[in-house]
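Batch job 17 of 40 flagged for manual review because the log was empty.
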Amino acid sequence: MENRLNAAAIWLLILLQGAFVALGERTRDKMYEPIGGASCFRRLNGTHQTGCSSTYSGSVGVLHLINVDADLEFLLTSAPSPPYAPMIPPHLFTRSNLMRLKEAGPKNISVVLLINKATQMKQFSHELNCPNQYSGLNSSSETCDASNSAKNWNPWGTGLLHEDFPFPIYYIADLDQVDKLEKCFHKFNNYNYETHALRSLCAVEVKAFMSAAVNTEVCMRRTNFINNLGGSKYCDPLEGRNVYATLYPRKPAVENGLDTVHTNEKFILVSCRLDTASMFDGVGLGAMDSLLGFAVFTQVAYLLRQLLPAQSLLPDSLRNVLFVTFNGESYDYIGSQRFVYDMEHLDFPPKSAQSPPIAFDNIEFMLDIGTLDDIANIKLHALTGTTRAKQILEQLNNYAKSPRYGFNLDIQSEMSAHLPPTSAQSFLRRDRNFSALILNARPTNKYYHSIYDDIDNVDFNYANTSKDFTQLAEVNDFKNLRADSVQMKVRNVSSILAMTLYQTLTGKEYTGTKVANPVLADEFLYCFLQSADCPLFKASSYPSSQLTNLPPMRYISVLGGSQESSGYTYRLLGYLLSQPQPDIPKENCTNLPLHFFAGFNNIGECRLTTQNYSHALSPAFIVDGYEWSSGQYSTWTESTWSLFSARIFLRPSNVHQITTLSVGIVVLIISFCLVYIISSRSEVLFEDLPASNAALPLPTAC
């Protein structure tokens, strides 16, 4: 009977505990309302830290809506109950305003909320006026002049991406969430400001604590020391993967010949940038920043694959084209710096590729596709006006101005050290005599490296034609598409570049009628701007692959982070540059370079591919004893963090908090007094009870 009662008591306690937990969770849910968004985070380089961080337990601030400059002025000069969390629309998220908030310090400003009310926004770029200013050619003033908007590459840049803020900055894109915040502000905060300190106010708590501090050198030293003791890391190097492919398959290296350079093998290096950047985690499509150049790059590769004859039929049968997408270029050219380093040490391609190394002597020239903000105003840049540069410019304009194709473009040139911030600078920094040509448009992107460089910024409308994007187009096809649509602009530039390279490789002018297919550009942009669950990605994946309906993130990230963009690029280049192998069944198409793709009709097809990965990790992290402040290589790292979260609640007034604390102290004192009195008078209060030692038997003699 006693055991049953004990069991019943235990079950009762468990049920009561569960009820209290559920009650506590319901109470918490009533007290706090979660807010979805994206947080600014901390990155570090060899000399300083940038970004944002909350306090360890989270930063709390009273909501205050900023509609005009006067609202911000009131908050900075007459705030009645700090700290505050200003809600700032994009058009007021300026350098001057943010620096004033930074100067006010975390005692007055503890959180900044960027709300997605972009109706008055005219520009929004927080990159430097001269991106990658200190990692290109040795003299940075040669390539870019930050003080002269006509001579820099991002006239609208504020540089906030490279500032360090003592509070978290949280971006809220969902308009319903923004409306929730504004209603809470108007209901509890937006009246009788002189009584703010006397009543409860609507506040927000943001948790975005960053583990790293000071700079990369300090952070890596702390990380390595802690790791030796089995602890956690404070920061990780920015790290990803470059993706490359050759137009024609290369011959595998003979046994014991992996370190032997084939000096008679020549390559035209065609490159573009794979990544983009923004202030907030996981947000930023880089539509105009790098995606248009990437789209042109893809079209050029596919058009050449379709137009050119077999390699053995070229005038030089050992000539090839090496296509490379560099990752991490937004952070001091991580991918291209590592590519150059590997080529210097004969480590490219990686040993796993089982092909001979490629040295600089194998590179005939480089054609780097930069940012194409304004496709109607493209320039061919080179450090000096070499014969090669003049020849390529003449060929480009021959096709750009030809009435046969109707592209109606006039490609200008600039042969000087005023070079755009592209991957070619890593090659020219090593050797100013390296033959590098850069195709770049004049800067018009007012949202460079920001969350608003999106589908609207390039005016993309998905045509969704359901037509076969693997077929080349005729010159007069697709008259239903607007001539000024982004798909047709990509078609025009891609065709001009491919025709020029065709002439360079064959020695003959291109006279055909086939041009790049705007449907391929349409599908490419849809995949990277709207949804990865798209026809192009499906065709270049394994049959029946499950794809996400979100566009791939193109931030370089860290080891173990998202590498979606390089993964999709790997499959895409593999599919578009591969050769069909109809006689090889699926069960035999398992080992590279053979790859089994779904294909346009999703029935599956075996192809001979040439694509592969190379490491995009700065040499600074593999060179023993590297001097972190030397500026030779990129030193960017990313801080570790536990979580990002935001929630709103009613923050009690100071009077309420003081009263609660005072009552608690009084109750504590009274409790101690009562316990002391009861303890000291226990014999009187409990005299009927036997003494504690009454049950002990009296001692007996031995």
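Reviewer: the log was empty due to a logging misconfiguration, but the result itself is present. The first helix runs from residue 2 to 31. Unflagging and moving on to job 18.
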